[in-house]
Amino acid sequence: MIYVIASIRVKPGKRDAFLEIFKANVQTVLAEKGCIDYMPTIDVDAGLPPQVLGPNLVTIIERWERLEDLHAHLKTPHMAAYREKVKDMVEGMSLKVLEAA
C-alpha cells in the first residue's frame, strides 16, 4: 500500500475556492483503479506546542493499492483538468510518497 501526503500552499483568500474545485473531483478519483482514500484536510488548532498551523495550507491524504495506480492517476484527464483550474491559486506544493515500514 502507498500513502501520499501532499501539502498544497494556496494563495491567501483562495483556500475555499481551491477546496470547492478539489472536492468536485474526489468521487472521480475514488473510482479510479487502486484508490482507497483521497481527501483534503485543513489544520485544526489542537493547542499542541509542536504544531505549526497553516491557514493557507491544504493537506491531501491519499492511499493507493500500488505505486503504479498512483502513477496512472496522475495521467488521467480529470487530473489534468483539475491542475488547470487551480494553477493560479497554488503558491507551492510538497509531496511525501510513503509505504509502511
Structure characteristics:
101 residues, alpha+beta, 34% helix, 34% strand
* Straight-line N-to-C gap: 11 Å
Radius of gyration: 14 Å
Specify the overall morphology.
globular
Give the strand tally.
4
Coarse structural class? alpha+beta
Secondary-structure element pattern, one letter each? EHEEHHE
Mean pLDDT: 97
Side-by-side strand order of the widest sheet: 2-3-1-4
Main sheet attributes: strand count, strand direction, barrel closure: 4 strands, antiparallel
> Could you estimate the helical fraction of the residues in percent?
25-40%
Strand fraction band?
25-35%
Total helices: the number is: 3
Low-confidence stretches: none
Explain what this protein looks like in three dimensions:
The protein is an alpha+beta fold and 101 residues long. It has 3 helices and 4 strands. The termini are close together.
Give me a quick take on this structure:
The chain has 101 residues and is α+β, with helices and mostly antiparallel strands. It has helices at residues 15-30, 67-74, 77-86, and strands at residues 2-10, 35-41, 57-64, 90-99.
Q: What topology does this entry show?
A:
Blueprint: E1 2-10, H1 15-30, E2 35-41, E3 57-64, H2 67-74, H3 77-86, E4 90-99
Antiparallel strand pairs: 1-3, 1-4, 2-3
